[in-house]
């Protein structure tokens, strides 16, 4: 019978056998899958696993630092790479969602390739691919899919010529979480909401600037912290704030303001394919709205998205 413990034991033994003294590079995203894959590989080959965590400047507030700290705490051999400016430069002037996704995918590959080259004699690319990613070959999600869609752009980067090791490719998401728990990975990583690879770039409608990222990070942090302190974070499948390219009139003291709108999104779902908007308590929404408008400069209006998927999608881009 399948149990998380037996999976951990047999997988670590099999990875040891397969990899021997070889080196592996793996890109960590802060998400559940890549984290569990990394810890399994770390148990099997220790310091021969070289993890790379890229700061694309599109993560949640303080996320890069705090997740990097957790990874180090777990004993992973990890390098954090500040590539914020490279991503902002590539995104400059782009407002079409697919162009933004492509630019982010391209820069990620460039940065990752530069870093992979620093690891002498690396033989393998580790990936957190899970079973649904394998069967859903048309999936638009995840680093492997991002990489696939770039196959035909000017030849393969060197790291994509490496042999691939994917220790989770027979598991479903709930099994990955159980394996993560059996490995002792923190709930702070295992219990987190899904977060898209292109990050806040697809939650800022239209063109990205570092200033808009900063505003959205502040609003999003207020939102998520309030979900946590109200005890509803774990009941929500995914939540996030969206920066709308709309200005509206407001009043602050005696002054008329003309500033942007932030939309709050929270959904219940099993797999992201369909989703219902969450009926968050009005009192909680009121508290979040007040806190955002009173504290985030540049935002004078907060709205709540009451659309389900289909026909809407979870993200706005
Ligand atoms: P939608 O907006 O299509 O989102 O209803 C479904 C799920 O997929 C995530 N998503 C993405 N994840 N790269 C990702 O890694 C992407 O480009 C992307 N677009 C959407 C979304 O956050 C939700 O969990």
Tally the helices: what do you get? 11
How much helix is in the residues?
A: 40-55%
Tally the beta strands.
Answer: 9
Biggest sheet architecture: 5 strands, parallel
Structural class given helices, strands, pairing? alpha/beta
The share of residues in extended strands comes to 15-25%
CATH T-level fold name of the largest domain: Rossmann fold
Could you tell me how far the N terminus lies from the C terminus, measured between alpha carbons in angstroms? 42 Å
CATH architecture of the largest domain: 3-Layer(aba) Sandwich
Domain GMPS ATP-PPase: 2-192
Function: Catalyzes the synthesis of GMP from XMP.
Catalytic activity: XMP + L-glutamine + ATP + H2O = GMP + L-glutamate + AMP + diphosphate + 2 H(+)
Enzyme class: ligase
What keywords describe this structure?
Rossmann fold; globular; purine biosynthesis; 4-stranded mixed sheet; 2 domains; alpha/beta; EC 6.3.5.2; 11 helices; 5-stranded parallel sheet; GMP Synthetase, Chain A, domain 3; single chain; 317 residues; glutamine amidotransferase; binds xanthosine-5'-monophosphate
Per-chain topology:
Layout: H1 4-19, E1 23-28, H2 32-45, E2 49-55, H3 63-73, E3 78-82, H4 84-91, H5 97-117, E4 122-126, H6 131-135, H7 142-148, E5 163-165, H8 173-182, H9 187-190, H10 210-229, E6 238-252, E7 255-268, E8 276-277, H11 282-295, E9 299-304
Parallel strand pairs: 1-2, 1-4, 2-3, 4-5, 7-9
Antiparallel strand pairs: 6-7, 7-8
Helix pairs in contact: 1-2, 1-8, 2-8, 4-5, 10-11
Bound molecules: xanthosine-5'-monophosphate.
